[in-house]
Amino acid sequence: MQLSHAVTKVLVESDNIEFIEDRDTIRQKIVDILQNLLKEEEQIDLEVRKKIASQKKEILEGSEEWDLLYRRHYSEELKKKGVGMVSER
Fold first, then answer.
1. Which tens digits make up the pLDDT trace of 32-69?
2. Which terminus of the chain, N or C, has fewer Cβ atoms within 10 Å?
3. C-alpha 36: how far from its chain's center?
4. pLDDT of residue 76
5. Using an 8 Å Cβ cutoff, are 80 and 58 in contact?
6. Region of 75 on the Ramachandran plot (φ > 0 left; ψ -120 to 50 alpha; else beta)
7. Could you give the number of structural domains in the chain?
């Protein structure tokens, strides 16, 4: 995972961080964290899609209404998990 290498490099080069583990152990932990986050995001996506599909009226994916509902429900799921949504600019 190229991202884990980049994150590890930034951490290792930081003067504010002291490591008690070797670089590869740190990189592998970053990979584990990122994989868990991706799995959690996938689960949230499935839950949001289920909520939209359960609406009385059929809402077509890709429509403005579907996108609005998706963002709203996604944000709610993140809040339930204690994760704040970053505002779009």
1. 999 999 999 999 999 999 999 999 999 999 999 999 99
2. C
3. 9
4. 92
5. no
6. alpha
7. 1
